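User: I'll paste a sequence; please echo it back and then give the predicted structure.

Assistant: Echoing your sequence first, then the prediction.
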Amino acid sequence: MQHEVTAAQQLLSKKGTIVEEGWARRPLWKYDRKEIKASALKIKEWDYYAVMSHEHTFCLTATIADLG
């Protein structure tokens, strides 16, 4: 079962790890690239969007990525 995140929060802890894994119905995570504990060349960032019809007759997805 997938976990739904319902409260606004920081994406990363002070150690650079994800605070709470899951999905949300709207953007809830506060993201600061400076909190990532890795070389800039190793940082991979992307936004994934999915839109589905209520009848499940179609699905539209898009991924926007920066692979370093």
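DSSP finds no helices and four strands in the chain. Residues 51 and 65 are 18 Å apart (CA to CA).
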